């Protein structure tokens, strides 16, 4: 119960302090360490469902679901961006391009002091 209350607070903070269109997924890491598991998969899925997030389990050590999790998050972001453009097509043309140039900073005149 305490774990769920803590995550509800985290979820509320994410929704309160992040951008309106921030996309969040819940990721359980170190799924390769089955003997030391603290949160079972079903509990993670249930929590994600309650919070309105997608759930993934990953292991960077064994390269389990890392790429798939990242790709799913990118897909979610792209879908939300498409929805935003469909709702307001002027968004795409209203943004000004910003270009970064790799040039040295201007020389400061030497002080004769």
From TrEMBL:
Q: Which Pfam families match?
A: Ras
What is an example of a GO molecular function annotated in this UniProt entry? GTP binding
Class of enzymatic activity (EC top level): hydrolase
Q: EC number(s) for this protein?
A: 3.6.5.2
User: How the protein sits in the membrane?
Assistant: Lipid-anchor
Q: Does the keyword Ion transport apply?
A: no
Q: To which protein family does this belong?
A: Belongs to the small GTPase superfamily. Rab family.
Q: What is this protein called?
A: small monomeric GTPase
| Species whose genome carries this gene | Falco tinnunculus (Common kestrel)
């Amino acid at each position: 119960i305490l774990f769920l209350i803590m995550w509800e607070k985290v979820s509320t903070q994410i929704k309160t302090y992040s951008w309106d269109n921030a996309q969040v997924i819940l990721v359980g890491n170190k799924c390769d360490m089955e003997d030391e598991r603290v949160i079972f998969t079903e509990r993670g899925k249930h929590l994600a469902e309650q919070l309105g997030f997608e759930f993934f389990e990953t292991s960077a050590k064994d390269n389990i679901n890392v790429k798939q999790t990242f790709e799913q998050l990118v897909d979610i972001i792209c879908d939300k961006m498409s929805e935003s453009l469909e709702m307001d097509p002027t968004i795409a043309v209203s943004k000004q391009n910003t270009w970064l140039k790799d040039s040295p900073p201007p020389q400061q005149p030497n002080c004769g002091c």
